[in-house]
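Standup notes
- DV: blocked on the single-chain target, sequence here:
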Amino acid sequence: MLVPNVGSAVAGVGVTAPLWVGLLVGIAFGIPASLWGIGNPETVIRTGRLVDRLLIGCFASVTAFGAVLLYGLHAVGLPMHFDPKPLYVYSGAIGGVNFGIGAAIGGYFPGTEWIALGEGRRDALYAIPGGLMGAAAWTLIYQTTVGQLLVSSANVGEMVVTGHVADTRPWTMLAVAVGYAAVVLTLLYFLPRYKGGAHSCRRHLGTGCVDDHDRAFIRDTTAFLTEGAVDVAQRRVRRLQQWVNAEAVPFTNYYARTILGVASTVALIVVGSILLRQVFGQSTTYSWLIGTLLLQNFDYTAVVVHGIGWEPLSDVGVMVGAMITSVFISGRFTAFRPVVPPSWRNRFGTSPIRRGFAAFTGSFLVLFGARMAGGCTSGHTLSGGVQLSLSAWVFTAAVVLSMVFTARLVYRDTTWLTVPPQGTGAPEAIPGGGR
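- DV (later): unblocked, structure below
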């Protein structure tokens, strides 16, 4: 008999998914997530630098689509297993700050490390051990006075936007979800993807055109996403780069259809996971693995082991999905070549030791913060955001603010360009791209 990751349920669904389904869910998530490019640490770093708002648009779109779908299905009578993270104000906020600092330095979230491993990124060989040590650190601290204070003080409970999850009314929540989606999608209409640009995801989808500014950014985005790709993938990579340079038709919707299409797919995965009593999350695996191997007799290990569901298998699935995508679809498999993210190498050089230390340290802080907060960008921002959970909003706000502040402090005004221009200026089409 398989044990689900149970929490409070407003209405239980009669079937709990067997754990092996998590492998399929992970593959289904890993394929579009790899297409997003979030396994590449430069994508996360540029989010913190507010250079490329791809992740902001993707995550916001997922929560908008997912919330309407989740509460719409619930309103028409489909039983759902709601499991929002409890709102621990102190641990959620402090954990989010640690998470954001680590993400800006290392360029990884817990789930994107498995994507990076599937794509053959060398950084992942340092990031995953760092994450395991970060999870171990929280396991050690959890049962101390400080740890218990963080997870017991200011505990508001399992709150969604209208109140406690057990007291929600389906049609009221659907109305709130529709309003939330309308606000989010309206804001995304006016938020350009690239720094200094004019074309947002939704507006660009309607106009079907790319200006010189965005085309320059597209070239650079393609350059860092395909950097270090192995020879077997070069035909696809060269064709991709030729399309960009030729301003071909596929790039009239380079990011609009990708964001909306992938966001819809991920929203379906998240809602489906909630329906099957297995809330989607990717940081629990680290605590489960380090706890069962090395820290069996600690209180937090007992908590994790009691609540673990299909997370370990879904993480393996994410890795497999990313490998499938990088080898057969996107052509971005790097075979563990020493590829250093452009923002990092332009600021600190190409030393593999220095970059490996940054990936390890950043991941340590990310997983330490995620376990302190009780979830990560998957468990909080995506799963929690779809449920309109207050804990998700607190955590995500802390992550974004600390990411932006840390990225500014660490990278300063260093160019993010994959091939920096000679001298101090940047190409005219990318204002602010250099010092």
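- Follow-up: Confidence is low (pLDDT under 50) at residues 1-14, 248-253, 424-435.
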